[in-house]
Amino acid sequence: MASTADALVALLPLATIAFLMVGRYWPATRAMPVAWLVAVGAGVVGWGMSARWIAAASIVGFITAANILYIVFGAILLLYTLKRTGAFDVINQGFASVSEDRRVQVVLLVFLMGSFIEAAAGFGTPAAIVGPLLVGLGFPPLAAVVVALTGNLMAITFGAVGTPLIIGMIDVFGSVDTVSSAVSAQGLTIEAWVAEIAVWAATYHVVVGIVLPFIGVAMMTRFFGEERSIKPALEVLPLTLFAWASFAVPYWLTAYFLGPEFPGLIGAMVGLFVTVGVLKAGFFHPDEEWDFGPQEAWPDHWIGDIQPGEGGVAAGTSGDGSVTADGGAVQMPLWKAWMPYALVAVLLVVTRVYDPVNAFVTQDLFTLAWTDILGTGLGDSFAVLYLPGAVFVAVHLLTIPLHDMRTDEITAAWSETIEKVTPAVVALLFAVATVQIMLQSGTATGTDSMLIVLSDGMASLAGGVYPFFAAYVGAFGAFLAGSNTVSDILFGTFQYGVADQIGTSKTLMLGAQAVGGAIGNLIAVHNVVAALAVVGLVGEEGRVIRLELIPLVYYGTATGLLTLVFSYVLFPGVF
């Protein structure tokens, strides 16, 4: 059993992140390098790690971060490509034309479209995209940010085509001998086990998320409606439940049959198609349209530098529902606007489930691998063609002729992508390197690692009720880092260790961790700042975070209770 002093030393890197980012409001780009230095100090002084092991663990972290950045870059590149060609305006107008009712627009644009963007791109993109769309339709900017942050929780766990689970768990657990050995003893590979975790995470989301579309609408009517009541939200409860079901059924089935990459993507695509089709057929429309009160009655803090649109038809659209691209000369049909994302879905499925293609893209020729780094036995790789980043970049290249992109549009898309991704580079490199030092501190010295020591301490404090707090721990990680992926990297092994110590299901615990990482995105500081910045409301972070605590507490508590019931009553035999 580790001493209290060991536990305090092990806690130092995480405490540094919390203090600098929460207490001092440092951005992750400044806080994470400092946390890495603290982890180096803890490894050398507290654990006796050599400089060679510190360097090797950091290199593994850098390679893992490069995998994440590749996916993020490709996803955001495609997103900005579609914004430049006008395709995103076309897609938005397709939803805006269905109904003028703000409640219906929240269900379509925030819950379903936001979930699609999260599943395709992830990393805080939905609120930064959906928020301005809502403002263009006439929403108060503050209301747009609050509901945009709330609506896509179910997709975040599987965001950026499964990056939180693929990178945050598969890559990390594969580098931890104690975890990989225990999983192998169950007759499973790490990939197969994480696929099971994905199914349980989807199960938590499906049960707890049944009211998620309703919560988004209710927060809008309660805090931004003239009535200041949830009664208008109750009038569209049947629609919110139908939208949830149309998303949740394919979402869960995809997690079960295809794994962690596609649940959000396929769930959102099917949900959009079904819900829009039913609405166009005349079902689930409320008796009376609901709108915000007159703009002159809105409080000053609802509006910043960007004025809301007039509502109805989105900016850049023509009266017949078609939308012109940036050049203003070409009108784009809806199928053409959606085609790039359809190609993404097809290529991702083909490269994962069709064996000849899978064998081609995963061959050694297209994989950059470093084994036995600095003689430590550690290693990692970068699969150039297999990672989803390759699919996104390929579809971007196909979109250039498909959407007749001009050179200046291509240049702008790349410039905007680089500008968006660059701030994440330093933060991710040092965040993942910090965790790798904590993970490898045990292997380097033949003792329990820092995270195992922390797990032992948490297990002793919380005992058998710890599963209730698992989702909140995941949320704390995402709050610190602004990323479900980084939360899984930070706390995945920690949650595994606690489950092992108290004798409960590791799979169920990590499913709760995956859900918690999604919850924390509601209040992740840089997500909130980014969402406010694009609607001209920087400075209202505290107000937004206070409101987002409402869905966070509901989701965290409900997931915690479900984890307890699953772990001790319904499924106690799950590994």
Short descriptors:
globular, two-stranded antiparallel sheet, two-stranded antiparallel ribbon, mainly alpha, 575 residues
Explained architecture:
- By secondary structure, the chain is mainly α.
- Helices cover 71% and strands 2% of the residues.
- Helix 6 runs parallel beside helix 24, helix 9 (159-174) packs across helix 22 and helix 11 (190-208) packs across helix 23 (506-519).
Write the layout of secondary structure elements.
Blueprint: H1 4-23, H2 28-46, H3 51-85, H4 87-96, H5 102-120, H6 125-136, H7 141-150, H8 153-156, H9 159-174, H10 177-185, H11 190-208, H12 212-224, H13 231-234, H14 237-258, H15 263-280, E1 323-324, E2 331-332, H16 334-353, H17 355-361, E3 367-370, E4 380-383, H18 388-402, H19 407-445, H20 450-462, H21 470-481, H22 484-502, H23 506-519, H24 525-533, H25 541-570
Antiparallel strand pairs: 1-2, 3-4
* Percentage of β-strand residues: under 5%
Q: What coarse outline follows from CA principal-axis ratios?
A: globular
Unreliable stretches, pLDDT < 50, 5 or more residues? 310-330
> Number of DSSP strands?
4
Give a quick rundown of the structure:
By secondary structure, the protein is mainly alpha-helical.
